[in-house]
Amino acid sequence: MACECDMSNSSRHTGERRTLIVGLVCLDIINVLDNYPLEDTDTRVQDQLWERGGNAANTSVVLAQLGVKTEFIGTLADSTLSRLMVEDFHKYGVLIDHCIYHNNCKPPMSCIIVNSSSGTRTILHSNRSLPEVMYEDFELLNLNNYTWIHFEGRNVEEVLKMSERVVMHNGQFIESHDRIQISLELEKPGLKPSFCKLLPKADVVFLSKDVAKESGFQNGEECVLKFSKDVKPGAVVVCAWGELGAWAVGPNGEVVHSPAFPPAKIEDTVGAGDTFNAGVIYALSRGSSILEAIMQGCKIAGDKIGHQGFKIDAGTVTT
Ligand SMILES: Nc1ncnc2c1ncn2[C@@H]1O[C@H](COP(=O)(O)OP(=O)(O)OP(=O)(O)O)[C@@H](O)[C@H]1O
Ligand SMILES: *[C@@H]1O[C@H](CO)[C@@H](O)[C@H](O)[C@H]1NC(C)=O
Ligand SMILES: *[C@@H]1O[C@H](CO)[C@@H](O)[C@H](O)[C@H]1NC(C)=O
Ligand SMILES: *[C@@H]1O[C@H](CO)[C@@H](O)[C@H](O)[C@H]1NC(C)=O
Ligand SMILES: *[C@@H]1O[C@H](CO)[C@@H](O)[C@H](O)[C@H]1NC(C)=O
């Protein structure tokens, strides 16, 4: 696995290679209630937060908090609402120099209802017009600047072209540490079968419980074993399964499992999966074993769900 060099040094002078996250940033309006509202009632909520959200954006912010030099690329609407997201990236030191601004668009938004009694989250997502990141946008990046590229598997055709460009780029190197590691998150159901073409491009594939179930798999072990037939030889396949923790399989075909590390009280599971992915990428990029990496992911995710919002506790980082 490629190593993040100079991890201890948080200064980010240009030219240093970094981790790139490709995907969505959106605005989340989070309503915290201790009980689900009844239809056609007027309810006062415990709290209402406006936050920067989106899977790829969340993963970026967690990685940056772990001390990884991180860049995010995604689309932003040329709207005052986007300022909130831009400022949040700046706050965490995530580079966004290559983000694409679109005129006359409304940013995607999610309205989320968090049940603070049970910790569940119900998401209502809207996007009326903002285009996704396209291959033409990705083509402008100088790949020499990156050690690891993580794709949120959304617009599969474009992500396929992007990942093929990275595979081509890697072809010129003999030493594995010169090559860019590719990871891919497949979280939303409904992308099958088109995402199958993406699977052989990645070194690490994250499948969600929803995608596993859509494919007819009953548990994380079955999911990683079956999908390991579709990835490239030697790739790592990971599947997180809420309170049951996570499963993974790597080059030797052995399935490993990490339990979840639940906090004393679950406050907010919003973004647990994104936090888990960041923990796994962090650990693998530092040369941890697959088991250590998914344990790291579960520990950070467990810490996150004990808090409202997205601050991770530095004490959780063990590797
Ligand atoms: N209820 C829970 N109890 C303990 N750990 C949990 C719980 N939910 C999530 N986790 C931790 O978070 C990791 C990721 O979980 P999972 O992928 O199911 O999250 P998710 O709900 O899909 O998150 P997201 O909101 O990002 O979509 C799990 O492997 C586990 O370690
Ligand atoms: C990317 O790398 C090139 C040299 O390889 C450098 O000139 C450029 O400044 C880097 N880009 C960024 C945004 O750091
Ligand atoms: C919210 O949590 C409480 C306590 O667990 C539960 O009684 C209630 O049914 C939950 N509501 C929903 C819709 O999840
Ligand atoms: C948003 O919706 C538009 C119009 O349906 C679609 O073309 C675009 O891909 C979507 N973008 C995102 C970021 O989901
Ligand atoms: C990302 O994290 C934010 C909190 O910073 C949260 O509001 C949001 O829902 C998360 N988004 C997703 C898609 O998980």
TrEMBL record:
Gene Ontology terms: biological process: fructose metabolic process
* Record keywords: Kinase, Transferase
Keyword Transferase recorded: yes
Query: Which Pfam family is one of those matched by this entry?
Result: PfkB
Recorded superkingdom = Eukaryota
Molecular function terms in GO for this entry? ketohexokinase activity
Domain annotation Carbohydrate kinase PfkB: ranges: 21-309
Which protein, by its recorded name, is this?
Answer: Carbohydrate kinase PfkB domain-containing protein
